[in-house]
Write a structure and sequence with these properties.
The protein has 187 residues and is of the alpha/beta class. It has a domain at 4-114 and 159-171: Spore Coat Polysaccharide Biosynthesis Protein SpsA, Chain A (Alpha-Beta Complex), CATH 3.90.550. The chain is built from 5 helices and 10 strands. The chain has a 6-stranded mixed beta sheet with strand order 3-2-1-4-10-5, sandwiched between helices. Strand 2 (32-39), helix 2 (45-52) and strand 3 form a beta-alpha-beta unit. It is globular. The two termini are 30 Å apart.
Length: 187
């Protein structure tokens, strides 16, 4: 069974993170390892996660990692811990919630796909049920972002559940926290 590594940055959002963790615990697919990047939380976030998740590694920051620094720490953790090229990686925000078959469906999708691919989750509003994210089109010259229309080619994916193989992730070279510390929050 394919291993999934989940990179989850968090900072002082214990209650928000706990909703994510409760979704994770309820998954039908359990062959995952959570890498929690706890960037200096003082509210007991890491302790709460450790009380609920057994396959866990905690990477601690000093509160100054921001989003890109946290993701870079996750990238470095994967490189240092013998992750297989074919293992799957998920980058995810701690305010993401999902159904019990979420991980199972993502892993199953990759069984039929070869080559370099990234898969973004469709995101729906919990309040309205409206589709809020299927990909983004960025105009880098004007630094504007807009949601892609159905069938439109996208050039940016959010981290509200972004999946890829480790071999493809390592090719990116990681993140650039000194240049873009917050990576426009979700992108």
């Amino acid at each position: 069974m394919q291993k999934l590594y989940i990179i989850l940055p968090a900072h002082n959002r214990k209650n928000v993170t706990e909703r994510f963790i409760n979704c994770l615990v309820s998954q039908t697919y359990q062959n995952y390892h959570l890498v929690l990047i706890d960037d200096g939380s003082t509210d007991g976030t890491a302790e709460m996660v450790a009380s609920k998740i057994k396959n866990l590694s905690v990477v601690r920051g000093d509160g100054n990692l921001w989003w890109a620094g946290s993701l870079q720490k996750g990238y470095e953790w994967l490189a240092a811990n013998g992750v297989s090229a074919e293992d799957l990686i998920m980058l995810v925000n701690d305010d993401t919630e999902f159904m019990p078959d979420f991980l199972d469906r993502a892993v199953s999708y990759f069984k039929n796909i070869e080559g370099g691919v990234m898969v973004q989750s469709r995101c729906y509003s919990r309040q309205s049920g409206a589709l809020i994210d299927t990909g983004t089109i960025v105009d880098w010259n004007n630094y504007t972002f807009r949601c892609a229309a159905a069938g439109e080619e996208i050039n940016c994916l959010s981290t509200r559940g972004l999946f890829f193989r480790y071999r493809d992730f390592i090719k990116t070279g990681g993140f650039y926290p000194r240049l873009i510390p917050h990576y426009a929050s979700d992108y």
